[in-house]
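Problem: given the chain below (109 residues), write out its structure.
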Amino acid sequence: MSLDQLKFSNLNTQRKETQRKVSNAISQLNAAADEAMKQQAYMHSNPDDNGANELIAVATPDFNASAQAFNEVAQKLQDMQLVQAGTLSITDYIAKYNIDLSEFSERLI
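Solution.
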């Protein structure tokens, strides 16, 4: 097997593993978001009048940090979609994220 074939094979293996990880993470994130939505609705409506609304101030910094982290990931995914659609050049994409393709290529061996 040539070095190029080895890199291709390893890239394909990594791609499949990354896709599996992304799918699992999305599934877990979706389930956690559903639970967080219920918690937020409960805190904001406080249907049992038990002071749950007091947790809003406690939860807000964590929520804001999580939302910011999610937005950063969402931006990366949006940019990948733009590359796929051909509306963001691969050169601009590589520069924006400071991607070192030489280093990545070496790791494929």
